[in-house]
Amino acid sequence: MTEITDKTIKLTPAIERFILHWGDMGASWGVNRSVAQIHALLLVSDRPLNAEDIANHLDMARSNVSNSIKDLVTWELVRREPIRGDRRDHFIAEGDVWEMVFRIVEMRKAREIDPAKTVLAHCLDEARDDPQTNETAVKRLSDIKELMDLLDGWYGQLKSTPKETLLPLIRMGSKAVDLLKPFLKKKAE
């Protein structure tokens, strides 16, 4: 349980710019701007905040803050944090950036990619069964489905790989591709 004595947060110009930009990014990703701005504020806060503090810092309606926090809690990007001597709910953002990114990707995958894969599979089945559908259409739908299935499998592998293993691979960048070239050439032959 946390105890807080200082009730103010100093939002520097850089932090304010980050919060506004995170809100813009969220809006372009299909997330409510307010939700993204609240998430940004909690990301950079050094202490849990209650809904009233959030509303005051971001100049938002308290009801908007409450609804946005519900979304963030549902997505497991924010959690409730009890504060000694304060009966109000306080909230803190997921502090592990890797975990945060994977949760966001998982949410987007479930909301966008999975339904698209389902519709694509049905369309492909129908196209294959319909003699009026041209071969080019069936081939391209099949290619898209194969790629989506491959990427989905790759995501599953990444998700199950510990970040301690992923981080060196990501840092290697194109060097990893260079290391694999001899194996890729053999496979192509």
Major sheet attributes: 3 strands, antiparallel
Shape assignment: extended
The total beta strand count reads 3
Strand content: under 5%
How many separate helices?
A: 8
Strand order of the largest sheet: 1-3-2
Q: Averaged pLDDT, please?
A: 88
Parts with pLDDT < 50 across at least 5 consecutive residues: 1-6
Q: Return the domain count.
A: 2
Termini Cα gap: 62 Å
Q: Which class of secondary structure composition applies to the elements? A: mainly alpha
> Would you list the SSEs in sequence order as H and E?
HHEHHEEHHHH
C-alpha Rg, in Å?
Answer: 23 Å
Helicity, as a percent range: over 70%
Give the helices and strands, then pairings:
Blueprint: H1 13-28, H2 33-44, E1 49-50, H3 51-58, H4 62-74, E2 78-80, E3 90-93, H5 97-129, H6 135-160, H7 163-172, H8 174-188
Antiparallel strand pairs: 1-3, 2-3
Helix pairs in contact: 1-2, 2-4, 3-4, 5-6
